[in-house]
Structure formats: structure tokens, C-alpha cells
Design a protein that fits this description.
Order of helices and strands: HHH
Oligomer: single chain
Distance between the termini: 51 Å
């Protein structure tokens, strides 16, 4: 039986230098957001530190991006924090 498949896979070597640099900058930005969001969520969860402004608004203002990156980083960090909390890893 034949099966049709489609992939969005791309090869880094096949990209132009401009596209490769753009992706690299986005990854660096996203990792910085992950680090910042995790620190803030950790302080809020374990030490009760609250900020007047929401974490999403803080990340958007600090890194100058739209909603997609900050919300993805916050969601990923909440899952990681919940996982660590359930396995008692501080």
C-alpha cells in the first residue's frame, strides 16, 4: 500500500547564510527567554516573589517580540517546573 507523506524538514547546510543567521538569532533569543522565564517562575513558585506586571508582558518588553515566543517559553518552563516539583528536584 502506497503512502503519501510530507515533511517540513530543512537542512541547515542548504540554507542561505542570511536564513541561517536569522534562525540562529531566533534560537538564541528563545533560549534567553527560557532562562529568564524559568528564573521568574521558580522565584514565584518557591519563594512567593510576585511582580506587578505579568511575565508575558515582561518578556515582550524586554526582548521586543510578539506573543508567540514569550508564551511558548512560559509554557515550556511551567511544564519543566511542574516536572521538577513532582520529582522533588529543586
Amino acid at each position: 500500500m502506497k503512502c503519501l507523506s510530507y515533511s517540513n524538514c530543512f537542512y541547515y547546510k542548504a540554507l542561505s547564510e542570511e536564513d541561517a543567521n536569522c534562525i540562529k538569532k531566533d534560537l538564541i533569543l528563545y533560549n534567553a527567554m527560557l532562562h529568564t522565564a524559568y528564573k521568574k517562575l521558580y522565584l514565584t513558585c518557591f519563594y512567593g516573589v510576585k511582580d506587578a506586571v505579568s511575565l508575558q508582558k515582561q518578556l515582550k518588553a524586554r526582548y521586543g517580540t510578539n506573543d508567540y515566543f514569550p508564551l511558548s517559553a512560559i509554557h515550556e518552563d511551567r511544564v519543566l517546573l511542574k516536572s521538577k516539583f513532582e520529582t522533588n528536584q529543586r
